[in-house]
Write a structure and sequence with these properties.
Elements lengths: L8 E3 L7 H6 L4 E4 L15 H13 L2 E5 L4 H8 L5 E3 L7 H11 L6 E5 L2 H10 L3 E5 L9 H19 L10
Parallel strand pairs: 1-6, 2-3, 2-5, 3-4, 5-6
Bound molecules: magnesium ion (MG).
The site of magnesium ion (MG) has 7 residues, from loops.
Length: 174
Amino acid sequence: MFERFLPKLRVNSVFDIDLESLYAQGYRGIITDLDNTLVGAKAPLATPELVEWFEKVKKFGFKLVIVSNNNLDRVSKFATPLNIEFVHAARKPLGPAFRRALSMMGLAPKEVIVVGDQLMTDVYGGNRLGLFTVLVLPIASSDEGLGTRFNRRLERIVKHRLHKSGLWLEEENK
Ligand SMILES: [Mg+2]
């Protein structure tokens, strides 16, 4: 039962995602988490490196929507200056926000990857809908709120179980 929390791919950061290969495999859309995936949970704006990454994503031909459990103020202050569409207060891992992002992009689940730093919300939610899930390492986990810290505890249990089943091969804290 823990397989549902297993990402299809694990990378250190969004910059390590092989966009070219995913595009060649037929993927056309990226649903990405915001806090601790794109920037630290307390960082209001994108870094220059990230702005460049967004341009690269667009140039490859991917559509991109930010789907965040955070509030309108936080998400719009980050996304609006970059002209990026978003869904806030998403209640991941529940399905509606993911489905909304799919319809904003006009894409089918099999064409879309989900990027996030949390197993319990991003990966589980994406897997439930049959999206290609990519787990990144959290950028600054010390900035996390109560809800996320609770999810991290669950994450440790899930990783331990996956590790025991031979599905999670590296150190548990990775
Ligand atoms: Mg996050």
